[in-house]
Specification:
Blueprint lengths: L3 E7 L5 H15 L6 E7 L11 H9 L16 H4 L2 E4 L2 H10 L7 E4 L20 H23 L2
Parallel strand pairs: 1-2, 1-3, 3-4
Helix pairs in contact: 1-5, 2-5
The structure holds 4-nitrophenyl phosphate.
Length: 157
């Protein structure tokens, strides 16, 4: 398969996109593809730059076998459109913000991550930041399914 660089993007880069980074990284490693698929995450906002993921995302991730603790937040930058082949947004607002930043020369794929999990019937990963514990589990459920769909799609390329 073709080497691919994948960037997951949410608003703060402390809940959803670091979860996507950790879950997809685990699936890619389990498939023995960590030498061909590079993975990173970023936020459209700069608020949490340099910070670790939200403690709830770290804890719920760990409870399901994913290690988010070493990750650090950063903001999306123009260079990302040069460096990455796929830029996958968690929700429609993230996607709109990325579309506004996207240079005309970008030849990669910019879209919604959950479109790789068509069976879900949901296109956005709900922001868990202001909600309760169940929101964090739902984020992981959705992201696990979309990660599997994404990996399948990349394997066919
Ligand atoms: P994320 O969640 O975009 O999934 O990282 C959020 C994190 C922080 C804030 C909002 C959403 N915030 O308002 O600080």
């Amino acid at each position: 398969m073709k080497p691919q660089k994948v960037l997951f993007v949410c608003l703060g880069n402390i809940c959803r996109s670091p979860t996507a980074e950790a879950v997809f990284r685990a699936q890619v490693a389990a498939a023995g593809l960590d030498h061909v698929i590079e993975i990173d995450s970023a936020g459209t906002a700069s608020w949490h730059h340099g910070k670790a993921p939200d403690p709830r995302s770290i804890a719920f991730g760990a409870s399901r076998g994913y290690d988010l603790a070493p990750l650090r937040a950063r903001q999306v930058r123009l260079q990302d459109f040069t460096d990455f082949d796929l830029i996958l947004a968690m929700d429609a607002q993230n996607l709109a913000d990325l579309e506004a930043l996207k240079p005309a020369a970008f030849r990669g794929h910019l879209g919604l991550f959950l479109d790789y999990a068509a069976d879900l019937g949901v296109r956005e990963v709900p922001d868990p930041y202001y909600g309760g514990d169940s929101g964090f589990h739902q984020v992981i459920d959705y992201i696990e399914q979309a990660s599997a769909g994404l990996l399948n799609a990349l394997l066919k390329q």
